[in-house]
Design goal:
Elements (H helix, E strand, L loop, with lengths): L8 E5 L1 H11 L6 E5 L6 H10 L5 H9 L5 H11 L13 H12 L4 H12 L4 E4 L6 E7 L9 E5 L1 H6 L3 E8 L7 H9 L2 E4 L4 H5 L6 H9 L3 E5 L13 H11 L7 E5 H4 L5 H7 L3 E5 L12 H12 L2
Main location: cytoplasm
Keywords: Cytoplasm
Organism: Microlunatus soli
Length: 316
């Protein structure tokens, strides 16, 4: 690897998908920024969000943990951030990292970026973590099959947790408010980047929402950076058996102006999908197929194999 050519990379997402991407990317560059969804309304994040009227910290915490180093100190800090208090009391279920982040936000007058950067310095994180919006958001979805007695009727599901868990077919999502302010630092990071990475992750609640924040979406579309879309290893609970090509179609429906340079897919997901390459081409992208799934057969990306593929695509 030529360290003089380390790229500046911005990765978008939330939860486990973004963690997988960051775990790979930090192995090939330290010029790395994670831009994270802020619509979580469940679990510890939802409780903190409701009580303190702040951004939900959970996905931000997971991104910070993913950027910790592989040495003993880094892994210890990652474990501490992710540790949850047991029991059913007032602290039960809260992650230590969520409380740390929320506490710093309170102490620093509610400045979310300053708090996140202080945590990143404490952890020795290899990169920055930024919220995609300066305000907490809500996700609302149009779904079909919500009521089994009228399976073709279109209904509405409100809230990220409910959208992620619905048994109905999700057709479209939107943000509330519909025109939220983007994080100023996130927009600037996109403008300064060499590469943008969308996905992997929950398609409707982690990947697409970034394209629904107008200022951020405009920056993603207009940037001179090259754009990679990393598909999941297989369809997830939100897309329920949808083909890889259908994932591209859903993305295009929510962001018609978006063009891509590379669509990265695991070989197992593209098997028997005759339309994927033509869909990728229609978005301006080269389809890159590689064995990037974890060897244990789970629906996860292997960080080392994904890192090697990213490095090859970026030429580092």
């Amino acid at each position: 690897m030529n360290i003089e050519r380390l790229p500046t990379v911005v990765a978008f997402g939330g939860g486990h998908g973004l963690s997988a991407s960051l775990g790979a990317l930090r192995r090939i560059t330290d010029r790395l920024t994670a831009i994270v969804t802020v619509a979580d309304d469940g679990g510890s994040s939802g409780r903190i969000r409701a009580e303190l009227d702040c951004l939900p910290p959970g996905d931000l915490r997971m991104a910070l943990a993913a950027l910790c180093g592989d040495d003993e100190s880094g892994r210890t800090w990652a474990d501490v951030l992710q540790y949850r208090f047991p029991g059913d009391g007032s602290l039960g279920g809260h992650a230590i990292g969520n409380l740390l982040i929320a506490g710093l936000w309170q102490r620093l007058g509610g400045d979310p970026v300053a708090g996140l950067e202080m945590v990143a310095r404490l952890l020795g994180a290899r990169g920055r973590v930024l919220p995609m919006s300066a305000v907490p958001l809500e996700i609302e979805a149009d779904v079909v099959g919500l009521d089994p007695s009228v399976p073709d009727e279109v209904g509405t599901v409100h809230g990220q947790e409910k959208v992620a868990k619905t048994t109905a077919e999700v057709r479209a999502v939107r943000l509330i408010p519909a025109d939220p302010p983007a994080s100023v630092q996130a927009v600037q990071a996109v403008r300064d980047a060499d590469w943008l990475i969308l996905g992997p992750g929950s398609w409707f609640t982690s990947v697409i929402p970034h394209l629904l924040v107008p200022q951020l979406a405009e920056a993603i579309v207009d940037t001179g950076a090259r754009r990679i879309l990393t598909l999941n290893v297989q369809s997830d609970a939100e897309t329920k058996g949808a083909s890889a090509a259908r994932h591209l179609e859903l993305l295009a429906e929510h962001a018609p102006a978006l063009r891509l340079d590379v669509v990265l897919a695991d070989s197992s997901f593209v098997r028997d999908d005759p339309h994927l390459e033509s869909y990728a081409t229609s978005l301006g992208a080269e389809l890159v197929v590689a064995d990037i799934a974890h060897r244990d057969g789970s629906a996860r990306h292997d960080p080392l194999r994904l890192a090697a593929t990213y490095a090859e695509v970026m030429g580092v």
